[in-house]
Design goal:
Phosphorylase Kinase, domain 1; Transferase(Phosphotransferase), domain 1; 21 strands; about 30% helix; Kinase-like_dom_sf; protein kinase activity; Prot_kinase_dom; ATP binding; Protein kinase domain-containing protein
Length: about 450
C-alpha cells in the first residue's frame, strides 16, 4: 500500500493532477519509488480516504423513494473524483473491471466499476467492525489477475517484440510513455487467437462507462517475428459493445460480402471469451429503478486492413473533399446494397487513406427496418456537432437517411470554416460554437438553433 496522495503519475497527460490517496501494488513493482508513488500503469487498485463523514449514497433510498446518489455539490464532486480514478486506471491498463475502496471515517464502502456502471456496497462502520475491510484485502491478495479485473488476453511484449514494434510503428509513437502490448484476437474461423503487437492507442476513453473504444496501428506476430518484419501494418480496434445494438463486426462482414467500397476491410475478430459486464446483472437482481436501463456489454476486438489518418490532416481542399466524397459513396453503397444506416457520420469517422477516404466506425449502424422496430428506435444517436437539426431538436422518430446525408454537409462546413480560406476569417471563434456546439438544457438537452 503506497501513499500516492501528493504526487501525480509522471507518465500521465501534461497537467494531470489525479492522485488517489492510496495505491495497491505488487510487492516487486520496481516502478514505485519515493519520488514516483503514483503509477496508474501498474497499480492494482486505488483507495480514497476522507477524514470526515462525506456520504455519497443513501442506503435507504429505495425504501424512502429517493435517489440513491446524494444530490449535493460536494457529493457530486466526490463521485466525479472516484470516476476519474477509474478513467485513469482503465486508460493506462487493459481491464475488464476495477475495485475501489472509499473510506470516509468512520464509514467505508467497496465500489466495483465496469463498462456499464458501478456496484456500490452498503456502508459499514470501521470503528465498530473492520472485518469487512480486512476480509476484502485478504481475498484481493489471493485473487488471480483476471479476478482483480485484468484483461488476460493482453500481455506485455518481450524485449525482442518491443524493439520490432517500436521500429515498425514509429510513425504512431505515443505521446506519453507506454509499453508495447501483445493482444489476442479471437475469430470463429481459427481455433487459436491471432497475435498482434500494439504501441499505445490513438485515443483513450474519457469515461469509465460506455463503449470505451480504443484503436491501434498493429503488427501481426502470429507466425513469428521474422515474418512480422515485412508484414503490413493493420488497424486493431476494441470496444465494449452493447447487446442492444447490432455488432459492428457483423456489419463489417456484411459490407465486405456485398463488396461495398470506401469502408474498412475486416480481416479477423470477435468477442473475447468470458469478458462480459456484471453491473447489469446485479442491477436487475436488486431491482434498480433509477435512470436509463443498463445494457450488458461484451468486449470485442477486431482487425481491419486500412490504417487511416484524421481528416484534419488533409493537405489541400481537394484531398478533404475527395475523402468526404468517398465516404459519401461508401454510405450510399451500404444503404443501397445492405439497407444499412451509419447513424454517426462525423469528422472523426471520415478518414484519409491513400488516394481518398473511407467511412469508419459502423458500431452505431442499423438495418433500416431494425431502426424502426428495435429497442433503441427513438434514441438519439450521433456526434452532437454533426447531427441533423431535427435530431438535435429532439424529434421522437427513428433515424432516417436524410439525417446521415445532412451530417455530411455539416462535416464539410465545419472543416471548411476551420481550415480553408473564407471571408469570415476573424469570426470562426464565434461562428463555430454558435453553429456546432449550441444547446439548451431544460429537462432534455436540445440544440439545432445555430444550424
Amino acid at each position: 500500500m503506497v501513499d500516492s496522495s501528493r504526487h501525480a503519475d509522471p507518465d500521465s497527460k501534461a497537467g494531470s493532477k489525479v492522485k488517489p490517496d492510496v495505491g495497491i501494488h505488487k510487492t516487486d513493482d520496481a516502478s514505485v519509488t519515493v519520488a514516483t508513488p503514483t503509477r496508474f500503469g501498474s497499480a492494482l487498485s486505488p483507495a480514497e480516504l476522507k477524514k470526515r463523514l462525506l456520504e455519497l449514497f443513501n442506503d435507504l433510498a429505495k425504501k424512502l423513494g429517493v435517489s440513491f446518489e446524494i444530490d449535493t455539490d460536494e457529493a457530486r464532486d466526490a463521485r466525479g473524483q472516484l470516476a476519474t480514478y477509474a478513467v485513469e486506471y482503465c486508460a493506462c491498463q487493459h481491464r475488464t473491471h476495477l475495485f475501489l475502496v472509499y473510506i470516509y471515517f468512520p464509514h467505508a464502502r467497496f465500489i466495483r466499476f465496469d463498462r456499464c456502471g458501478a456496484l456500490v456496497s452498503t456502508k459499514f462502520d470501521l470503528s465498530q467492525d473492520c472485518t469487512p475491510l480486512i476480509r476484502f484485502y485478504s481475498r484481493f491478495s489471493k485473487m488471480t489477475d483476471a479476478q482483480r479485473g485484468y484483461d488476460t488476453t493482453v500481455t506485455i511484449a518481450s524485449d525482442e517484440e518491443t524493439k520490432l514494434a517500436q521500429e515498425r510503428l514509429k510513425e504512431w509513437e505515443p505521446k506519453h510513455e507506454r509499453p508495447v502490448f501483445k493482444m489476442d484476437v479471437y475469430d470463429d474461423k481459427t481455433p487459436k487467437p491471432r497475435k498482434f503487437l500494439v504501441w499505445g492507442s490513438l485515443a483513450d476513453p474519457e469515461s469509465p462507462l460506455g463503449r470505451a473504444t480504443r484503436g491501434y496501428p498493429a503488427l501481426e506476430v502470429t507466425d513469428g517475428l521474422e515474418k512480422a518484419k515485412d508484414a503490413p501494418i493493420m488497424f486493431l480496434k476494441e470496444q465494449w459493445r452493447s447487446k442492444a445494438l447490432r455488432p459492428e463486426i457483423d456489419t463489417l462482414r456484411e459490407l465486405k460480402k456485398a463488396d461495398v467500397k470506401h469502408v474498412p476491410t475486416l480481416l479477423c475478430g470477435g468477442d473475447l471469451p468470458g469478458q462480459v459486464t456484471q453491473t447489469d446483472a446485479f442491477a436487475a437482481k436488486i431491482g434498480r429503478t433509477e435512470g436509463k436501463p443498463i445494457d450488458r456489454r461484451f468486449h470485442v476486438r477486431f482487425v481491419v486492413k486500412e490504417v487511416g489518418r484524421p481528416i484534419e490532416r488533409f493537405s489541400s481542399s481537394k484531398e478533404m473533399f475527395q475523402a468526404v466524397y468517398d465516404a459519401f459513396q461508401g454510405h450510399k453503397q451500404a444503404y443501397e446494397k445492405c439497407k444499412l444506416l451509419h447513424r454517426d457520420v462525423s469528422g472523426g469517422n471520415i478518414l484519409l487513406v491513400t488516394n481518398g477516404g473511407l467511412l469508419n466506425d459502423w458500431d452505431m449502424a442499423v438495418k433500416v427496418n431494425e431502426d424502426k422496430l428495435g429497442p433503441r428506435a427513438h434514441e438519439r444517436t450521433g456526434t452532437w456537432a454533426f447531427m441533423s437539426i431535427d435530431l438535435l431538436r429532439g424529434e421522437r422518430r427513428p433515424h432516417k437517411i436524410s439525417d446521415d446525408l445532412e451530417s455530411f454537409f455539416w462535416v464539410v462546413l465545419y472543416y471548411s470554416l476551420l481550415y480553408l480560406p473564407h471571408n469570415k476569417v476573424g469570426e470562426p471563434g464565434d461562428i463555430i460554437p454558435a453553429i456546432f456546439d449550441q444547446y439548451t438544457s431544460f429537462g432534455e438537452t436540445k440544440g439545432g438553433q445555430g444550424k
